[in-house]
Amino acid sequence: MGEPALQIDAGGVHYKDLNAQLRQAVADGARRVDLYNIFGQRYIGTDLHQPVEIHIHGTPGNDLACFLDGPRVVVHGNGQDGCGNTMNGGEVIIHGRAGDATGYSMRGGKIFIRDDVGYRVAIHMKEYESKRPTIVIGGTAQHFLGEYMAGGVLVVLGLTLRPGERHTANFVGTGMHGGVMYIRGELEDYQLGKEVGQVPIEEQDHALLRELVEEYAIHFGRDAGDILSQPFTKLIPLSSRPYGRLYAY
Amino acid sequence: MHSLENRYGDDKVYDACGLIGIMDVSGERFSGHDIVTGITQMEERGNGLGAGFAVYGCYPEYADCYAFHVMFTEPDSKSQVEAFLNENFVLVHDEEVPHRIFPELPNPPLIWRYFLHANEKRVVEEKDGDELEYVVDKVMALNTSGIGAYIYGSGKDTGVFKGVGHPSQIAEYFDIEAYEGYLWTAHARFPTNTPGWWGGAHPFTLLDWTVVHNGEISSYGANRRYLEMQGYHCTMQTDTEVMAYAADFLMRRHNLPVEVAAKVMAPPLWAEIERMAPEDQALARTLRQVYSGLLINGPFTIILARQGEMIGLTDRIRLRPLTAAAHGDRLYLSSEEAPIRLVSPELDWVWTPVGGQPVVGRLGELIEPPAGATLSVQVPVYACAMQSVGV
Fold first, then answer.
1. Contacts of residue B338 in chain A, CB cutoff 8 Å?
2. Partner of A183 at 20 to 30 A CA spacing, among B162, B255, B348, B388?
3. Is-above-0.95 flag for pTM?
């Protein structure tokens, strides 16, 4: 058996070797691994199926936690593109911002991002029976948020917006055909894709939002009550098969 | 198939190109160490079939000369090239571009650099005194001559170094760290559907314009035909080449500001134009009509540079990545944040530029992050004291 908690200096280590070290450490019984000097190593945490906590100190590379299935990955820094790509379970908590296509094809687990995200976040996220992936973004998002989204829950809190400033994302929910989006603040109709519509928030939505915002607040030391005191916009798809007739003539 | 795509046979996972640019807006010159460190960190994004560097302010002793960098794919062409240069220019100095002996790089061509002035009498006779037009003409004439030589750098005080190899190999081959400049760009290539040859490596250049690019220009044919009508000829067998010529055409010949040129290459979508104020709408519509042949379609991120200016731009729906960051007088543009952090662990700002909106660094101008850029998270760098325990 190895140590339950260990530290790895990843400076100059290729991601294949780093992930091999992680697999070995977890197999040896590690419950917490701290990775130092991370500069762009990709796919960190992939292929791990045990409940282990991985703390990343630095800037992890693309496809962080792709296919993640159980561990909790905490980033003390910013994420790049494709965080949580096709993630199946577990948690990713980013104390900073994240890039494009965060939560790409995600099918389970949770991602919390303290600040802003780039383009196409939650693209083609999907759910099935009890597996319902969740992304909570503390800041705001760029264009094509929830593009082709097929399931799951996407929450945008807008905490990085200054007073009076609005979300600027366009093409929100283009091609969306499943799942739900909650956006704190308002969106103009032109910002929405043709396939989504705004609907009133109901009691069960409040319960879900309270649960997720409280979790966000615990991760990043914010006041959940403050955040929840502002109104949210709820977006759902207008059809479960928006392109069903695209090639039918 | 494997050997065709990857003759190094190194079990490489294929990815996209990597770009990085670093500019000191105060004009302070710095060595190639940072740019080499940054692009080497992204070696994963390329596949060894091309890498290159551009540097501004690297030839202070010949700062007022055009620095022609010439690649001889046919060694016999050198005497013809020199006859051509002597006829049209006044030669100040010439030398082989210094390089290391590097057996891992297969068949590097002979590369020479010529520092020269234009032949003033001919400039007046042929171009009515327009020296830059004259130089463009001569570059195009030589590159289309078919003699087996290519001018791939023609700017004043601008160095261009490129070839077939990984960025670390090309950096070592040309000893990039020995040069100093105030603006650097670099590229790691993953060729998509054009050949990996020395001339096809990035940057692509004309005069002091250089461009490094990640993506594919699906409008290449239309752009190339448009530029040919304006006297620009594509000879490097790669789509990116049109970007350098489009930049020269729009911003030098037509004297458009970069913010307007960006609206030509990555125009707003029609739906966005319809929501603009009337005068902005008129400009946007006019640009789309007048310069429709220079709309760059398809996914792209470019870092474009000339003396005093570095510009980052993505296609209007941002189908390729670009991260911008600033620390003091240094502006960083890169495909990823990690190489920027590796070079400068401390940053004031990091942001993701909006598609179609240029990020511009200019000599003597403070770097202002756009509204909405978030303050950077400081990432502590740890002394390498951590041990790999139990593994």
1. 39-40, 58-61, 80
2. B348
3. no
